[in-house]
Amino acid sequence: MPIEYKKNQAIFRDMASVDEAEGLLEWLQGKPGARVDLGACTHLHPANLQVLMAARCRIATWPLDEQLRVWLEAALKSD
To answer: In whole angstroms, what is the distance from residue 38 CA to residue 62 CA?
Structure first.
């Protein structure tokens, strides 16, 4: 399962495809204070990125993959 939903945290594993975007959106809409763990994420479909950008949720753990981390930090970090 690419995204595991805990009480207040979504944990991404491996590749998160477009198929996960709708479920992620619905879960985040019901969890306004939710955090996201991207540590084990190796690929994030742009649809999921758009959901994360719109939700403006907190990132608990950034991806271990350096290139993916840089790309996602640029898109998701708010100053």
So the answer is: 5
